[in-house]
Write a structure and sequence with these properties.
Radius of gyration: 20 Å
Strand content: 25-35%
CATH class: Mainly Beta
Oligomer: single chain
Number of domains: 1
CATH topology: PH-domain like
Distance between the termini: 38 Å
Length: about 170
């Protein structure tokens, strides 16, 4: 959908920009920027809590209280959702930026590099470093990269800087 905006001296058009579903064949070679799910702090913490919650059910405990079972059914999906939002990784081709999650592996968000206005690398308190993608229509979304090492973040920032995208590095990687 195209919108037409006319100013007295300047005429330009704005098109809606959104994440899109593109076949892998169209993307080309992807360079991945990801950390280890199994050896990162977030990954180890995620699996430790899952094992500690499920362990008693798999062991020799004969009686499981209804409260414990209910807590397991409520807590584990919430724990999964929280951690799937904190453990993203990134991939780039010559035309696309792809964002995926280690845990929610079926989810994939893709941005055409030509539609991205700016990328902001930021961190807040104890939260993992994150990448905020701001598109040309000024929509933005933040992706936490909880499994990425500082070295991987540096490589990603270096690669993004080689494109036409403005990169704002607020954590001095």
């Amino acid at each position: 959908m195209k919108k037409r905006v006319v100013d007295n001296d300047y005429d330009f058009s704005v098109s809606d920009v959104s994440t899109e579903k593109v076949a892998i064949v169209e993307i080309g070679q992807l360079d991945e920027y990801k950390g280890s799910l199994w050896f990162s702090y977030r990954g180890v913490l995620f699996f430790a809590v899952v094992v500690l919650m499920i362990g008693p059910l798999m062991g020799s405990v004969k009686v499981v209280s209804w409260f414990g079972f209910f807590a397991l059914l409520v807590f584990l999906p919430l724990w999964f959702l929280l951690n799937s939002q904190l453990m993203h990784y990134f991939a780039m081709s010559s035309q696309y930026l792809v964002v995926r999650s280690h845990l929610a592996f079926w989810r994939r968000e893709m941005y055409r590099l030509s539609d991205v206005e700016e990328v902001v690398i930021e961190s807040h308190g104890r939260a993992p470093h994150s990448m905020r993608v701001i598109t040309k229509d000024f929509k933005n979304k933040k992706y936490y990269g909880g499994t990425l090492s500082t070295k991987t973040w540096r490589e990603l920032v270096k690669r993004l800087s080689k494109t036409s995208i403005r990169v704002r590095n607020e954590i001095d990687l």
